[in-house]
Design brief:
α13 (358-372) crosses α14 (377-386). The chain has helices at residues 8-16, 38-54, 63-66, 88-113, 119-147, 169-186, 205-221, 228-238, 263-270, 280-288, 294-297, 338-350, 358-372, 377-386, 394-405, 410-420, 446-451, 453-463, and strands spanning 70-72, 150-151, 166-167, 250-252, 276-278, 333-336. It is mainly α.
Length: 477
Amino acid sequence: MKKINFILLIIIAVLLGSCTKNFEDYNTDTKHPTDVPGEALFSNAQKRLADQIASANVNNNIWKLWAQYWTETTYTDEANYNIVNRRIPDRAFSTFYRGVLNNLLEAKSIIENNDAIGDEATKAKANKLAIIELLQVYTYQRLVDIFGNIPYSEALKINETLSPKYDDALTIYKDLISRASAATDKLDESGGSFGSADLYYNGDVSLWKKFGNSLKLKLGLFLADVDAGLSQSTVEAAAAGVILDASENCQLTYLGESPNTNPIYADLVLSGRKDFVPANTIVDMMNGLNDPRLDKYFTKIGDVYKGGVYGLGNSFSDFSHIASSILQPEYPSVLFDDVEMKFYLAEAAARGYNVGDAATLYNDAVATSILDWGGTQDEADTYVANNPYDAANWKNSIGTQAWIALYVRGFAGYTSWRRLDAPTLNISPDAQTPNGVIPTRFTYPIKEQTLNKTNYTEASSAIGGDDLLTKIFWDKF
């Protein structure tokens, strides 16, 4: 992906203000503009979304811990499922609604109201609106997968209500599928879009079409145990058009200098903090499988790869560390990649959907991960041969290898584990849940309990209780 210069936003502002000054200009506060271009708001939403996904700051994002990719050293509350002290759900809720969805909504409103003159401008405008819609769908799915029922039909309508109702999660999912399908169909590859204001795809509409189909496939597949018919039809309709090559990955590649570096670099390198080490959960598993990605994921301690005991205090100097390649300022934040999509296709095939052969797709997914991380074809072939697809226990085969491959992408790995119940994760003796059971969702924000109490109470009852162990609707087994 091309590196996007965030100075673009400043350039836009300069261009907009480049006309000759008149008398009224002297009474204008140029440092606090009242009108912001929709394209700038779109870029800001993309940046906020990518930052939230990548972050390793425990105030914002603890999915790398809950996926048991990393564990903590001195402070272990978050690895042991205490999310109340730092009010982590509140921050996630606020970031996705205010930082991402509200910016996208404002961008949509501004772009809709701008006149498009000529065929080229008309196509670009329609493509921009469709792309905004796809990112809204992506963000709402993430919110549902974190919390369950959420504000949706009344969300962000502050002129109508400050206390939005919570909609049923399954109903939201079905609407998201319709929205994603419609937006993807509207994309016109002969037209332009956001250009360099698009921090993910640099305005490439054909890649956004890949994104739309990938989003549809994911939404559809997650319904497999809830609405098998809708799941299959959605997946099969999208399968031919999804991301299947690393060059198509949807990601934000950061710059090499602050403040536009990957949050992992800011959180683990610039901060000088030593809060995390790789968890023994993943290190032990990869050691046992003689996984060729070990040196891409972790450093050695002495002559071995050694993970800290999940959930307990671990001395930073006694264990392996996160590999230096991941700690680079330019390291990308990934929304979708080819490996994730290939594992989804393998799962769909295993469920009997008409998308190809499950074993072939599984082998391709595993091999692609190794190659994408810099491994050789021989390493990939050997590893696949030693870890063959087991049709009789496909959830374990796909779930284990997908979880390993999704390393660093904490929420994606955690969600894969929730859905497929594989691999077996460790139980921390200090876990703040009954019998150390691993949570299956975030509890709702504390603010919602006070500022939106009636709707919060109804939503809590509808999902079976606002508890860490309440399952998301698609988590049936």
